[in-house]
Amino acid sequence: MRTKDHKGKVVVISGPSGVGKGTICAEVARRMHQVYINISATTRQKAPSEVNGRDYFFVTKDEFEKLKSEGKLLEYAEVFGNMYGSPRDEVDKALSDDRIVLLQIDVQGGKSVKRIYPDSVLIFIFPPDRRELERRLAGRGRDSKETADRRLNWSANEIAEAEKFYDYKVINDNLEKAVSEVIEIIENQIRSN
Predict the structure, then answer these.
(1) Residue 79: which of 123, 120, 109 has the closest Cα?
(2) What is the mean pLDDT of the chain?
(3) Contact call for residues 125 and 24 (beta carbons, < 8 A)
(4) 158: Cβ–Cβ under 8 A, 6 or more apart, which residues?
(5) What is the pTM of this model?
(6) Helix (H) or strand (E) holding 20
(7) CA–CA distance, 147 with 183 (Å, rounded to integer)
(8) What is the mean pLDDT of residues 52-68?
(9) Chain segment 96-133, per-residue pLDDT in tens
């Protein structure tokens, strides 16, 4: 159990694919001290530009199932046919070291984390509009047109869920402004503990 003088905090960053969650998390970590960005495990194929252990822990379906069955994942979900999950031991270690833990996960995972860590902060990153999100998804060059379309269509469900459950909403129409807003939310939450 953490006492009042501990500054560890779980911060969930969610949003549709292509909205800029990873960029925002990286900037927050660069500008703030004591930030740990959680690296999720996934069963999806590694993109050529990705590095195992930096972007994700790329695991087989069997390895993922073993992590689940052994209770080693804080949360997990199936997204577009692939499994994603947050390794629990790394999160707990970072919290015990009084670090701010950034979890870049989907809304379903965010709701699970809130049940485990009730004082966690849930921030949803919104795109300026649907057309801009579509442009960003296409610009990533990571997904087929069909997959990008599925991600775009799914974003409406994520946004509707976030409206009900998330503590804060940040529109990423300007990266500097979005990063500053996220940092301000985190700093205010730490001060209020």
Answers:
(1) 109
(2) 86
(3) yes
(4) 14, 15, 16, 106, 107
(5) 0.81
(6) none
(7) 32
(8) 94
(9) 999 999 999 988 899 999 999 999 999 999 887 767 66
| pLDDT at residue 94 greater than cutoff 70 | yes
Report residue 93 as tokens: 């270690």
CB of 55 closer than 8 Å to CB of 41: no
d(CA 45, CA 50): 10
Domains annotated on the chain, with CATH:
9-192 (3.40.50.300)
Distances (CA, A) of 177 to 24, 44, 87: 10, 32, 30
- Whether 69 contacts 79, CB under 8 Å: no
Determine contact, residues 179/27, Cβ cutoff 8 Å: yes
Q: Is the pLDDT of residue 165 over 70?
A: yes
Cα–Cα separations (whole angstroms), residue 117 to 23, 27, 131:
25, 24, 35
Distance CA 136, CA 123 (A): 20
Estimate the crossing angle of helix 145-165 against helix 130-140, to 10 degrees.
130
Question: Tell me, what DSSP letter sits at residue 52?
Answer: B
